[in-house]
Specification:
Elements lengths: L1 E7 L11 E8 L2 H14 L3 E4 L5 E3 L4 E8 L4 E4 L2 E5 L4 H10 L2 E2 L14 H4 L2 E2 L2 E2 L4 E8 L4 E6 L11 H4 L4 E9 L1 E2 L10 H7 L9 H14 L22 E2 L1 H15 L8 E2 L5 E2 L2 H7 L11 E3 L7 E3 L5 H19 L8 E3 L4
Parallel strand pairs: 2-5, 3-5, 4-20
Antiparallel strand pairs: 1-2, 6-7, 7-13, 8-14, 9-10, 11-12, 11-13, 15-17, 16-17, 18-19
C-alpha cells in the first residue's frame, strides 16, 4: 500500500481539476482496500474513493481527509463468466472480452474509468447498460464491517442509478461479475439507431463484436469521448448531465415550451422510460437553449465535438467548470422548464 500526504488529486481525474488530499492511499489488493476503509471509519476520517477518476468534480480546495485510490487488478474469464477487480481499466477489459469472442459489453468500449465504478452508475452507452450483464457485485459493507455479495436483483439498477449510488457511504465495490454471451464472435443485437446506421444494418441485427466495438470507438472519438491527453475536448467527465426523465404531465408542459420557443413543427427526442415516463435528450436541450458546441470564452467551455461534455481547456479551475455548468443548467431551465442533473459526483462543491 502506497501512502502520500498533501497529494494532488487533479492528475487522478479526467477533468484534471481539484486540490490536494490530506492523505492519499493507493491500494492494490482487496485486503488493502478494506484495511484503509476500516481505518478511516474507525478514526472518523472523511474518506473519498477514487477509481479511474472519470466521474469526479473535486473542489479547488481539495479533500480534507483520506483519498483511497483503488488500483486492484484481476481479469478472470471462465467460459462466458467474467470477474473483474474494481481497479481494472474498464475499456481494456471490454477489449479483452471482444478478443475472446464474447458479446454483451462491446458497445461500452472506450468509456473511461474503472470496472468498480460501472455498477455504481449503471454505466451505459450505445444501447447497452452493465446491469444487463452483471450477475453479482462483491463489496465491503461499511455498515456491517463485512464483505457481501449482492446479486443483480439486489442492486436496484435503473437509468444511471443503483443501490450503490443511492447509499454512497455504505458500499465499496471490490469485484464485479458478469455473464456474457457466446454468439460465435457476433455482437449482441444492436439497439442504438446511431450504431446500426453507422454499420449499415438494422436495429436488432448482429455484427462481428470486434466491428461493433471499433464502430463505437470511432463514434465516441468523434464526440471527444475517448481519452486523449492532447485533445482538450476529452478533458471532461464525458456526459456532464443525465438525460431528463419526465412524467406525462411534465412532458406535455415541456412540449408546450418547445412549441413556444421553436415552433409547432419541432419535435424533441422522446424515448419510453417505463411506467409512463418519457426520456428526452440533454444534449438536444442544451443545444436548443443556445449553448452550442464550443460555447464559452473562458478556460472551461462546452466541447467543440459534443454539447453534453463540459471541458477544461487546460487552465480551468473547478469553479470555472461549475460556473459554466450552472449557466447551462439555468439556461435550459429558463428555456424549457426542465432542470438538468449533473452526472459526475461532486466533492466539496455542488451545483
Amino acid at each position: 500500500m502506497q501512502e502520500r500526504h498533501d497529494a494532488p488529486l487533479a492528475p487522478l481525474t479526467t477533468f484534471r481539476l481539484g486540490g490536494p488530499a490530506t492523505r492519499l492511499i493507493t491500494a492494490v489488493t482487496d485486503a488493502e482496500v478494506i484495511d484503509a476503509v476500516r481505518e478511516a471509519d474507525e478514526t472518523g476520517t472523511p474518506l473519498l474513493i477514487i477509481g479511474g477518476g472519470s466521474n469526479l468534480v473535486i473542489s479547488d480546495k481539495g479533500f480534507d481527509g483520506t483519498a483511497l485510490r483503488i488500483a486492484t487488478t484481476g481479469f478472470h474469464l471462465d467460459g462466458t463468466l467474467l470477474e473483474l477487480a474494481a481497479g481494472e481499466n474498464w475499456s481494456d477489459a471490454v477489449a479483452r472480452t471482444v478478443e475472446a469472442g464474447l458479446a454483451g459489453i462491446e458497445c461500452l468500449a472506450g468509456i473511461p474509468g474503472s470496472a468498480g465504478a460501472t455498477p455504481i452508475q449503471n454505466v451505459g452507452a450505445y444501447g447497452q447498460e452493465v446491469s444487463a450483464t452483471i450477475t453479482e457485485v462483491v463489496a465491503y459493507d461499511r455498515r456491517t464491517g463485512g464483505t457481501v455479495t449482492l446479486p443483480n436483483a439486489d442492486c436496484a439498477f435503473s437509468y444511471r442509478h443503483s443501490r450503490f449510488k443511492q447509499d454512497p457511504t455504505r458500499y465499496v465495490v471490490l469485484r464485479v461479475r458478469f455473464e456474457l454471451e457466446d454468439a460465435g464472435g457476433l455482437s449482441a443485437p444492436l439497439k442504438y439507431p446511431e450504431t446500426a446506421r453507422a454499420l449499415g444494418v438494422g436495429a436488432g441485427d448482429r455484427v462481428p463484436a470486434a466491428i461493433a466495438r471499433e464502430t463505437v470507438l470511432r463514434l465516441r472519438a468523434g464526440k471527444g469521448m475517448v481519452l486523449d491527453a492532447a485533445d482538450h475536448d476529452t478533458w471532461s467527465a464525458g456526459s456532464f448531465f443525465t438525460n431528463p426523465i419526465l412524467t406525462a404531465a411534465e412532458h406535455a408542459a415541456f412540449l408546450g415550451r418547445v412549441t413556444e420557443r421553436l415552433g409547432a413543427d419541432v419535435a424533441p427526442p422522446a424515448f419510453p422510460a417505463g411506467d409512463g415516463l418519457i426520456k428526452t435528450s440533454a444534449a438536444w436541450l442544451i443545444d436548443k437553449a443556445g449553448f452550442t458546441k464550443g460555447y464559452g470564452s473562458g478556460a472551461a467551455r462546452i466541447s467543440t465535438k459534443h454539447t453534453l461534455a463540459l471541458t477544461n481547456r487546460g487552465t480551468a479551475t473547478t469553479e470555472d467548470l461549475l460556473g459554466l455548468a450552472r449557466e447551462v443548467r439555468d439556461g435550459v431551465r429558463e428555456a424549457f422548464g426542465v432542470t438538468l442533473v449533473n452526472e459526475p459526483v461532486t466533492v466539496g462543491v455542488s451545483l
